[in-house]
Amino acid sequence: MSAEAIFDPSDVRERTNQESPSPVASATPDVRSAADPDISVVASLRNVRFSYDRGATWALDGVDLDIRAGESLCLMGPNGSGKSTLSKILAGLIAPDHGVVELLGSTVFDDDGPRPQEYRRARRSIGAVFQNPEDQIVTTVVQDDIAFGPENLGFPRERIGDRMAYALDAVDMARYRDADPTHMSGGQQQRIAIAGALAMEPRMIVLDEPTAMLDTVARHDVVHTLHRMHQAGTTIVHVTHLADETPHADRIIRLDHGRIVADIRRDGSWPAETSTLPEFIQAPRDRTHDHPDAHPDAVVGADGGAAPDSDATRPSCPVIDSQWRAHTTEPAIEVSHVSKHYGYGGATVINDLSFSVSRGETVAIMGRNGSGKTTLARMICALTRPDSGTIRVGGLDVTSRSRRARKALRRETGFIMQRPERQLFARTVAADIAYGPGNQGLSPTEVRERVDEAMTLVHISHLAQRSPFSLSGGQQRLVAIAGILACRPNILVMDEPTASLDARAKTGIHDLVHELRTRGVTMLLITHSPQEAASLCDRTLQMPTPDEAADMDAATGTKMDSAVNEPAETPRTTTTSHDHPDHVAIEGRTAVHPVPSPSFIASLDPRVKLVSFLALMFTAFTVVSPAQLIATAVMVTAMTIAARMHPRAMWRSISGFLALFAAMGLLNVFFVRGGRTLATVFTIPITTDGLMVAVLYTSRLAMVIILGAILLATTMPTSLTDAVGSLLSPLRRRVHTQELALVMSLALRFMPTLTLETHAIIDAQAARGGSIETGSLTQRIRALGAILIPVFAGTLRHADNLSLALDARCYEEGIHRTHWRRMSIAARDIVFATLCAAYIMLLIALMFL
Predict the structure, then answer these.
(1) What is the mean pLDDT of the segment spanning 359-384?
(2) Which H or E element spans position 742?
(3) What single string gives the DSSP state of each residue in 788-805?
(4) What tens digit of pLDDT does each residue of 536-566 get?
(5) Where is the composition biased (Basic and acidic residues) (predicted)?
């Protein structure tokens, strides 16, 4: 088998249904520790084999492995070597094709196949953190997501609070406990996923590259947390590419081609310097030091990153050298007084930011997770608009609505996104890479030449006919990079292009950056590695950190909300030149706002709110008179005010529905003949009754949609789950009420995710000159149709990952779940229900007037 293991979500889904234990089976005992034996070997694998394509190739091929209790083990190896697959087997999330697997003293798989009950028992003491955190987060409030696993394990409510506090502190996310994780950066989501696993108090925790998307400080915090857990006796299985995450390990295992090719055990203690670690652990040598003028800070970092492995005579980029530094004073990117907010009244991600980048210059963008790096990149690439300020790229205004300007901008810029799986949408790798050149009007021969060149540059020519969705995360990233390179942009924005790549692939990307510099390409590189920034870039723009934000808050006396401890403002962004060690301030600051107190509607008991809103929505269909319509309009307006719904936010959430309902309502004008004739259109009379029916029809549907939007905006999915489960509890002996409630909650949670993925695919097509943005109406409709297949594939991928996430968080059918949030009916709930009942009585009375 090749080094790239095939990961096909559809195969996993089918295998999970047929072979691995189902997450919805009979309940296991609520108490874990009483029956747990004293186990010296927590995981044992014998001749384990696993295939995603029914044996055509093997992701794991004859793996024998024992992991002792309390060990800290690092799994390493190139992309596609089988690390993620092995981690899922060790976490009890998938079953192999052949072999014997024992977890926590129980044989969960042998020649007779999987043993579901044993799998369930083992999973209750195993924590798992996935490579992509987005699908592991199952709620829209941080603290509720952390509590989900302990709730499923039946922890007492007080203990859930203690575990939640510990887990959030461990990953430095306590200030965000009331925030929505679906709106956070990938690094912040990863920290929340880690906290969710820590809160379950696992005896063994399996982590698949948990720090790949984290900044340096956060990565250090996570590694330190794992070390403390290890010292406390927790068994750690850590998949990583980074050399500096191995010194605390008792053991390092390297996989290649699905087999264990090295198993190094600690003898005494690991050496402190990574240069003296076993050769396969070390990062490749940084040859920039071979040049006598190389910058002293441009070293191979402890993060495992590497400088380009190329000619020793080539100077490192920080050196002032007219032949190497081809950039001029002509600006390629100009950002002037730019601000950007999330939502209405939400956090200010970027505030009054100004800087410029010269043509041919390579600039690194660095900062903590959530500091606005990706938002800045998207604004520069015209994929989102700033709320204020101007951005010019290649002399073009990125906010221009002109199709000609947009088309010119797409030829000028390229954007490599943070999550490559969202940037891929074609059936094969070659077809995906050809998408951009094809939109530039090139001949088929020229397109093929561009595709071959791009695949050669990133060393993926052997993947040309593979489906991009079947590749590993690192391989997908390389395909996404090739797709942009094939467009030959003059300005390239790269959002963490080396995340999740092994050392060899990182070296290839670094070589690629050097090659693009020699061609005069202007580059913005978002990275968390100071060494990568120093060895590849002319200077660094440093976004403000949360700690700096807290310092600014203390200095200015601005208020902070004690519940979330979130600072109100951060200091100015700084820029660092790698030719000069001094930090120079540039205009710009990032600000965040505390979470406001909940509105009257948001603070209601979810059961009372759900029943009342459903009653109000149904009564809207009984409106048949102008008086009733006025009363309903007053009620909806009062609800909107009590919910503190911003009018623009409300309009954005319902505008599409309103347009559809208005079109449907107007049809009544042409079919209702009663009343006085007002006009005649093509021999069709327009009557007063027809207009009244159209207004009533549209208004009723609009009010139902507005009430639904208020309900969803003010009620968390987990609260809706608990409310539905409580209201249906009298039927629980005959109906799976808990499961129905959970399905509804997950649907509410992942509908925005699918919408986001759809927009991401549209953005990916637009970034490569697709007609979705600049084409004619017919071309746009055709382009919209082209996204259906990747969106469908994304839906299946989310469903697969969600199934694994529920397994990892120990959700099972029929279990007794502890509810972290207590539901209780207060005086305000009685007042609200009374007002709703009075309104319904008013509508009934108006029917008889």
Answers:
(1) 88
(2) helix 737-767
(3) HHHHHHHHHHHHHHHHHH
(4) 999 999 887 544 444 443 333 333 332 222 3
(5) 285-296
Q: Report residue 526: phi and psi, to 5°.
A: -85, 125
Tell me how crowded residue 83 is: count the other CB atoms within 10 A of its CB: 28
Selection from 424, 326, 318, 336 nearest residue 380 by Cα: 336
Final residue belonging to a domain, choices 557, 589, 621: 589
User: What is the chain's alpha carbon radius of gyration, rounded to the nearest angstrom?
Assistant: 29
Q: Which residue has the tokens 């936010």?
A: 649
CA 752, 756, 761, 765: dihedral to nearest 10 degrees?
Answer: 130
* Residue 556: both structure tokens together: 């200015």
Q: How far, in Å, CA of 348 to CA of 590, rounded?
A: 7
CA 755 from chain centre, in angstroms, equals 13
**210-214, 757-761, 833-837: which is most confident:** 833-837
Single residue among 531, 555, 589 that ends a domain in this structure? 589
**H or E element at residue 206:** strand 204-208
Q: Are residues 575 and 673 in the same domain?
A: no
Tell me the residue range of the domain where 15 lies.
Answer: 1-24+36-125+237-282
**Cβ-proximal residues to 358 (8 Å cutoff; 6+ apart), any chain:** 327, 328, 329, 330, 331, 332, 522
Read off the amino acid at residue 714. Answer: T
As to burial, measured by CB atoms within 10 angstroms (0-12 exposed, 13-18 middle, 19+ buried), residue 713 is: middle
Shared domain check, 651 and 557: no
pLDDT of 189 above 80: yes
Nearest to 96 by CA among 131, 66, 61, 57: 61
Of 220, 211, 214, 218, residue with least CA distance to 185: 214
Task: Please compute the mean of the pLDDT values over residues 564-586 and round it to a whole number.
Answer: 37
Q: Give the E-state strand segments of 266-403 in sequence order.
A: 331-341, 348-358, 362-366, 388-393, 396-397
Q: What is residue 446's three-state secondary structure?
A: helix
In a domain, 179, yes or no: no
CA-to-CA distance for 32 and 105, rounded, in angstroms?
Answer: 14
Residues 15 and 82 in one domain: yes
What token pair was written down for 108? 């969960």
Alpha helix locations (H) across 19-126?
Answer: 83-90, 116-123
If asked whether residues 537 and 659 sit together in one domain, one would say no
Q: Which residue has the tokens 């002032």?
A: 320
Judge whether 244 lies within some domain. Answer: yes
Query: Could you give the CA distance from residue 239 to residue 84 in angstroms, rounded to a whole number?
Result: 8
d(CA 767, CA 409): 9
For residues 731 and 685, state if they share a domain.
Answer: yes
How many Å separate Cα 297 from the centre of its chain? 33
Q: How many domains does the chain have?
A: 3
Pairing of strands 113-114, 126-129: unpaired
Angle separating helix axes 142-152 and 186-198, nearest 10 degrees: 30
Q: What is the CATH number of the domain that holds 277?
A: 3.40.50.300
Residue 663, phi-psi category: left (phi > 0), alpha (psi -120 to 50), beta (remainder): alpha
Higher pLDDT, residue 507 or 74 = 74
3 state SS of 6: coil
Q: What is the model's pLDDT at position 1? A: 36
Contacts with 230 (C-beta within 8 Å, 6 or more apart), sequence order: 70, 72, 236, 248
